[in-house]
Amino acid sequence: MADKTHIQWTEATWNPITGCSIVSLGCTNCYAMKLAGTRLMHHPSRAGLTKEVNGNHVWTGEVRFNEQWLTQPLSWKKPRMIFVCAHADLFHEAVPDAWIDQIFAVMALTPHHTYQILTKRPERMKSYLSASGIASRIAEATIGPAPNPRSLPTPPVIFNVPVGPPTKYGAPEFGYRRMMNPRSWPLPNVWLGVSVEDQTRADERIPLLLQTPAALHWISAEPLLGPLSLKGYLSTVWEGITSSYVGTDGIERCDMTGNAVPGLKWVVAGGENGPRPPHPEWFRTIRDECAAADVAFFLKQWGSWAHMPGRAYFKDAYKEPWKRVDSQISQVRPALMFKVGKAAAGDVLDGWQHHNWPEAGQ
Predict the structure, then answer these.
(1) Fewer CB within 10 Å, N or C, the chain?
(2) What are the tens digits of pLDDT across the range 317-326?
(3) What is the pTM assigned to this prediction?
(4) Angle at 241 between CA 236 and CA 244, to 5 degrees
(5) How many domains does the chain contain in total?
(6) 326: β partners
(7) Burial of residue 79, with CB atoms counted within 10 A of its CB: 0-12 exposed, 13-18 middle, 19 or more buried
(8) Is 239 within the bounds of a domain?
(9) DSSP letter for each residue of 198-221
(10) Distance CA 125, CA 134 (A)
């Protein structure tokens, strides 16, 4: 749990669940996985969640519910953007629905915060959030005691309810339950997103994301490992049947039946802090497509790699030995990428820093 974070597109991280498993190439150099296997390997929230394979720390697939952190957003009075489960996947197959119910209960209880969720498992997310009666079920979820009841925001209303059998002293334990109008769905302060690393994963995950009810849909294309076009995902798409007929006045008209599927409202992109460099044209393509569709674009970082016209310029600028990689991309001219480290690579594309957020209520 961190009230502050170095992740540029959020303000705080919240980790009521830790642990995960690898599902695609974007997971290979996961920072959370490496952290759990090194600096935090003895922390109770991470211990035993990774194993060493060929000298690398890899998720075991075990997940852990950190109840001690569940209610911490309740004590934050100042509104924040909060990245949910930064060191896990909320919709991992090993996460019980009951845990997710409690996490959504906390998010509904704190409407002054904005919660950002990312998953690589959109099929589970869609199934969970589209289930019949899900809003009512979350409205009935009971969470543990808040650290300071006076700090609880209203609405919704908070009240004490017995959450367990009588203790040895005769009185039952009490927790906090929120009252939520089941019609307030989807939650207006929860942004749902998927992580995609290339076109294949985008085409698999984004359609499922857009079919899931949410106040706002977004993606994180980080680490970007291949060319990516988001055309078709950035604008509202009508899915239905159109029929035409000529009225008695001789004017042709159309009847449309179906659903309007909203497009993405926010796109975050970034390179990898690892051995796989991005091609500059990958970022330019996403930037230009977002600009054409009036969708907010956020370039988080280049990762460990930077693009410069020539090696001599790099050596003159930083006085360091650089590793050179020629990125050969089909139908895109080669680019010289230099491994300079995250700080030196920065987040500037063609002279501009792209740190854009979607507008409220978009």
Answers:
(1) C
(2) 333 333 444 4
(3) 0.82
(4) 115
(5) 1
(6) 336
(7) middle
(8) yes
(9) SHHHHHHHHHHHHTS--SEEEEEE
(10) 12
